[in-house]
């Protein structure tokens, strides 16, 4: 089984070396490393060519992170695909655990291990948090809507990503949750790994974990949920997206109100009513779930 690792990059020379070294240290001969670079000008290309000649470097401008990931999926030849950010690392034994997970359950569409969140202040790690509760790794509807989705701790059979048409890069910061929502609705099964296999680097320049949700991200979440809801006239998909839309609209409205933007909060809530008059009910229901599972996001 070949594992393809897709790493999107743009001017990340100061980070990418450690990420790729963590792959080399897996001592796994059946891997493919794909660097999807948007046109770096900071020496990234020379670094990759000189230190990691086994990696395939693909240089082509892209619209956003998720177009780059889709390009990597299209170019991958592995049976399994995983995603490695330039400022993150695979932990020792990660790929061995992935292989064991797929061998244990050959019908699984993906496997998911735990993740380590390392908060950095410059070169110093100032805080570490382990996310390794089994329930979020198994991927429930609520986790996709408001939990830690641990995308980089997930390794997918490549045909599954192809069947889902990859990431919808219409949503430049929310496409990962959107993909996992479609994965969930398709009924795919995930094998949960006991091991912690991936380390996220959390810092000011991080694209994954850089603090609380921004107004742009919240508005994008509401737009995505509203669009998917309109496209889901009935059944499980409609119930799922009503819940997601209610949470997204309510959370965005609440954040606007807390920051003193009462008029915007009111408009957001009223616009959501036009999509689903019962969105406050779905918001309240999911809020109860979110609070009740809080301990799972802090283990």
TrEMBL record:
It comes from the Bacteria. This is Glycosyltransferase 2-like domain-containing protein. InterPro entries: Glyco_trans_2-like (IPR001173), Glycosyltransf_2 (IPR050834), Nucleotide-diphossugar_trans (IPR029044). It holds the Pfam family Glycos_transf_2. It comes from Pararhodospirillum oryzae. Residues 4-128 form the Glycosyltransferase 2-like domain.
């Amino acid at each position: 089984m070949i594992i393809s690792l897709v790493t999107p990059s743009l001017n990340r020379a100061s980070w990418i070396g450690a990420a790729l070294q963590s792959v080399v240290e897996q001592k796994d001969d059946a891997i493919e490393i794909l660097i999807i670079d948007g046109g770096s000008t900071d020496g990234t290309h020379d670094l990759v060519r000189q230190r990691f000649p086994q990696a395939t470097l693909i240089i082509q401008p892209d619209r956003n992170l998720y177009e780059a990931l889709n390009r990597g999926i299209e170019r991958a030849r592995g049976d399994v695909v995983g995603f490695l950010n330039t400022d993150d690392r695979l932990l020792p034994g990660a790929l061995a655990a992935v292989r064991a997970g797929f061998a244990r359950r050959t019908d699984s569409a993906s496997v998911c291990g735990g993740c380590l969140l390392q908060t950095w202040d410059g070169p110093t790690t100032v805080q570490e948090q382990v996310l390794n509760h089994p329930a979020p790794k198994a991927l429930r509807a609520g986790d996709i809507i408001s939990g830690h989705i641990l995308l980089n701790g997930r390794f997918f059979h490549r045909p599954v990503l192809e069947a889902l048409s990859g990431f919808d890069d219409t949503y430049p910061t929310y496409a990962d949750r959107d993909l996992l929502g479609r994965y969930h609705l398709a009924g795919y099964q995930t094998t949960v790994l006991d091991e912690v296999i991936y380390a996220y680097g959390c810092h000011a320049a991080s694209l994954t974990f850089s603090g609380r949700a921004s107004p742009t991200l919240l508005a994008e979440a509401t737009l995505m949920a509203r669009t998917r809801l309109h496209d889901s006239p009935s059944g499980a998909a409609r119930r799922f997206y009503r819940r997601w839309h209610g949470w997204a609209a309510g959370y965005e409205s609440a954040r606007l109100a807390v920051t003193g933007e009462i008029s915007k909060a009111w408009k957001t809530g009223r616009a959501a009513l036009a999509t689903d008059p019962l969105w406050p009910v779905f918001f309240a229901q999911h809020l109860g779930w979110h609070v009740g599972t809080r301990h799972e996001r802090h283990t």
